[in-house]
Amino acid sequence: MGVNSLVRAIVVMIVVFLVVSPFAREASAQTPIVAASVDDDAVTTDDVVTLTISVAGETNIPVPTLPIIDGVQLLGRTTASTQTLRNGQLSAEFSFSFRLRPLRPGTVTIPPVQVLLGGTPYETDPIEVTVTQGTGLRGPGTSPQQPSSLAGQEFFIEAEVDNDNPYLGEQVAYIVKSYASTASFALGRRTYSPPVFWGFWNAQDARRREYSESREGLRYRVTEFRTILFPTVLGSITIQPAEMNAANTFFSGGRPQYNSGSVTVEVQPLPTDAPPSFAGGVGDFAIEASVDVSAVNVGEPVTLTVQVSGTGNLDLLPDPVWPEMDDWRAFENSSDSATYVESGQLKGVRTYERILVPKVAGSLSISAIDYAFFDPRAKMYRTVSTQSIPIFVSPDPASLDAGAASQSVQSQVFRTAADIRHVKVAPDRLATPEPPLTSRPLYWAGWAAPALGMIAALAWRHRRRLHIRQTADGDVASASESALNEVLMSRERGEDPHQASGRILTEYLGAVFGRSPAGLTRQAVAASLTQADVSVPLISDLDALLEQSEAGRYAPGITVDPAGNVLDDAERLIHELDWELNR
């Protein structure tokens, strides 16, 4: 009996293992690993640090976006990947290498880099790099092993640039060509190792193409590697030799190393006659603007989309100088770029979005936007502009209702006044004069009636004010209690703090003043609170929080204040308003 039980237990364990182990392997294989590392954490200002972001376990990895690192210049990036099939599961490992140049001595902190995998964000750990002052000189590179004569050479490589005297920020193409004799290197394999492009922005990996060419009477198979660069520093920049490993025969096990010559580029500054709107763009660009709607109400958002397209470094293109528009409130939203290479030139479009909220009603317009840039081909500054965009802004519906009610009261008063303006018609004939009116009692009663009516009206008005005051005190207390409960519930629901705080404060103020929250602009709120003798600092704090909530609503991607403090501030302001309104 004991043996049978043991056998059954072993069988159950085997079955469980066979059922569970594939799921365990799958879960293990699908768990991504994201890590960051640097090749050296103690460097000088002469060195270049390589930051590598490694992602393992996924087969579709987006390129990580490197955050802004204070005191560091990004020179370029490269990408490498490997894929393996293990236990029936396809896995991959990606390495994203970012080349960084420290600009000043001190401690540089590389913040966490976020990678979005399957909708889930993963972050690396922060890294600290200690930077000391360098000598200002780059270390010597490898001397090029270029033969003095090409005659009889079976394999060699050359490096060049298409422009060795560019302007700062102008595109430069770095070209490496490997020449392989078709007789000896038809079956050879070659591995290209680009140099570190210190002093350049490199946004694209090298593009490869192959063709045939005759040199010194020999026929060569040429493999060309072209990298687009943008100089970021002035003066003389030396690009160190590129390297390439090649096997000279199909059966040869050796892999000799070949080096290209170094290339020197003299970067010249931009001319000094730049226009005021110039922000640093270099290339050839056009600009256009559009909006999502052409008619809105006061307080409703308009999305302005501005696209700068053309040839140049679109990834580092500076923002346009936005015009001042007194009738609008502006909120920065997002910006992104899409690039491609055409005819050896980096081209593309950079898109900016701004949220504009009209302050007043009427026929408004979005001012023309000027964009100045330096055209290196024409060697001059140029300015392109958008067209102004008309927007018709209607008054807020709640304000219209209040205005219509006020106008109705005024018209009633006017008609009443018109009804008592009688015209005395002249008599057809003369009659015997009657006794004067002053001798009649009704005459004096008529004079006394207005005074008595005024006294009665003042008494009624006093009682009415007392009743309104008591009612308002109750409304403020009820509104504040409801608002504070809503703050607590919004925290429990996990509602966006910026949007929740603006909604709760607007509803609270609408209840206090007996107005629709939809019609309460920030200007109307400030005016009503001023009439209620609320202190100026409290009104300023409330206006600042309402502005912050608008930024969270219309442009959530650029809100910089901690979200957790917004609801706390709203709660504090409700308490303070409740106290001041009930004084």
Structure in words:
This protein has 583 residues and is of the alpha+beta class. It folds into 4 domains: 30-132, Immunoglobulin-like, CATH 2.60.40; 155-267, Immunoglobulin-like (Sandwich), CATH 2.60.40.740; 278-394, Immunoglobulin-like (Sandwich), CATH 2.60.40; 466-581, Four Helix Bundle (Hemerythrin (Met), subunit A) (Up-down Bundle), CATH 1.20.120. The chain contains 7 helices and 28 strands. A 6-stranded mixed β-sheet has the order 23-24-22-20-26-27, with no helix packed on it. Strand 7 (114-117) and strand 8 (120-123) form a beta hairpin. Helix 3 packs antiparallel against helix 4 (497-513), helix 3 packs antiparallel against helix 7 (564-581) and helix 4 packs parallel to helix 7. It starts with a helix and ends with a helix.
- Head-to-tail CA distance between termini: 88 Å
CATH classification class of the largest domain: Mainly Beta
What number of domains? Answer: 4
CATH architecture descriptor text of the largest domain:
Sandwich
Contiguous runs where pLDDT drops below 50 for at least 5 residues: 20-29, 137-149, 249-253, 412-418
Integer average pLDDT: 76
The percent range for strand residues is 35-45%
Helical content stands at 25-40%
Radius of gyration: 39 Å
Strands of the largest sheet, in order across it?
Answer: 23-24-22-20-26-27
Q: What structural class results from the helix and strand content?
A: alpha+beta
**Largest beta sheet, briefly?**
6 strands, mixed
Described by the principal axes of the CA atoms, the overall outline is: elongated
Tally of contiguous helical segments: 7
Number of strands: 28
What is the CATH fold-level name of the largest domain?
A: Immunoglobulin-like
